[in-house]
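Section 5.1 Outputs to date
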Amino acid sequence: MTDRPKTPLLDQVHLPADLKRFSDAELTQIAHELRAETISAVSETGGHLGAGLGVVELTVALHAVFDTPRDRLIWDVSHQSYPHKILTGRRDRIRTLRQQDGLSGFTKRSESPFDPFGAAHSSTSISAALGFAVARDLGGQTPEGIGDAIAVIGDGSMSAGMAFEAMNNAGHLGKRLVVILNDNDMSIAPPTGALSTYLSRLYAEAPFQDLKTAAKAAVSMLPGPFREGAKRAKEMLKGMAVGGTMFEELGFSYLGPIDGHDMTQLLPVLRTIRSRATGPILLHVITKKGKGYAPAEGARDKGHATAKFDVITGEQKKAPSNAPSYTSVFARSLLREAETDDRICAVTAAMPDGTGLNLFAERYPSRCFDVGIAEQHGVTFCAGLAAGGMKPFCAMYSTFLQRGYDQVVHDVAIQRLPVRFAIDRAGLVGADGATHAGSFDVAFLANLPGFTIMAAADEAELVHMVATAAAHDEGPIAFRFPRGEGVGVDMPERGVPLALGKGRILREGGRVALLSFGTRLAETLKAAEALEAAGLSPTVADARFAKPLDRDLILQLATHHEALITIEEGAIGGFGSHVAQLLAEEGVFDRGLKYRSMVLPDIFIDQASPAAMYEIAGMSAAQIEAKVLDTLGVATLGELRA
């Protein structure tokens, strides 16, 4: 506690209503204290630091001006919501962020009435806010009532089509709605001093319909470099519609840009919007990701996501790695394949670092594409690349690939185009919780005709699967791998393409066969060792492929064992379901095979360590042992020993 920052004014804020009694100068001080508290908390928990630091002043101003939770404040993505959580009655739990039984790293409806809409994926806020606005006008009933609807969306999230679909609809409906474009990527020098005061007074005092004219007049008075910066910011919003900014063409009144770190601008403008707005308004604020914390401001990713860190130095406290991460293994393997095949290219959707493609971009910049937060476009872009004779690797997290599923079906699968899907963050991911879990990709891909689907059991297998995908030209192919480190196996010098639809047996045994798909193989082998010590020696196999299935291997295991159990890091409807279909069609169940399928349970599992999450899912080594005993009708390991 002694190292925590002194926050005398913030200590008096328990709920946003408490902000109403402070002066504007005091609100500025509260913002400083809130930034210090956010840095202190995230240093203990890890998490998304930079985004929250960039909206500290905006968070204070919004809660001070509007009447939350009656006014619905919706954070797009919501990884910037830590300061919001501190102000909305959760400060006493802020140091449980992203931990088991603690606060979510994102907004969550079940956590607080101040989180009116849960998020974690981008570009949903305007659609949701419009839904609240229409519900309000139709007489919708909620415990808090429904007042204004305010969406805060980043410039990166604006690259997704859904944001523009929502704005088009909002402009057509004409409902009172506030969209705040949090632009932290534009270089603009903020107005200061007397000029800032003048701008704020114009915003606060002018009739509402004259606000845009007043803003333009104020910009014209800026010194040359400042004026050019403001012009660049405005130009970002032009070019897609004739006759004015795109947002104005969509039916929004556009205000800005203003300095999102200057409370003397934020507070008057927000108060004016609240008192005078009638239809949809877009307020453009310029912010700096990582603002106010030098290590974050100086980082290449502006402190986007950090481990626990030292507040003074910013040095992250990462545990030493015993094995390379799966993501780095994928990235290096793809580089090796690209060295000898200039048709290989790589595509990601705003996650070059997260997917490891930053390495590919450095080596082969002309063959690497970050399409922004636009997964649908990214998938179809890959389809076009493949149709054009290239070998595209579409590298996306499993949870984000879901957003491009229609394109996977219509633009890739139906046309049998050889797009290679590198599916990162497969399975349960830990601190990011249910929103980022890769639970469904096997189920939603394996039912598509012509798809080849692989899962790496370890980091060496991943190297071979990258090579397999690179060599595969007969339709789409996907390979999945988890977050985190590998298991420490010996690594091959170079990947060798695998025989399609062929698994491998790792140990021979009797009575029961354990068929693993993915990285539960390590836990499966542990379970087998424990069972062997008790007198039962299971056969253990690695399926490698969910499609095409290794029919010969599966039928062999079913024929020569009393029981067959599949284990996978995915939802029902995936690998195990396809195995069951095969066994049923071959009449194997008619001959008395005991079959069980271990899949993720039919629940969304909240954040915890990956090990704890798999324990909740019932997929640890001990739980695999228990499944074997139950399937064989043996109560305990002691009975086996007897």
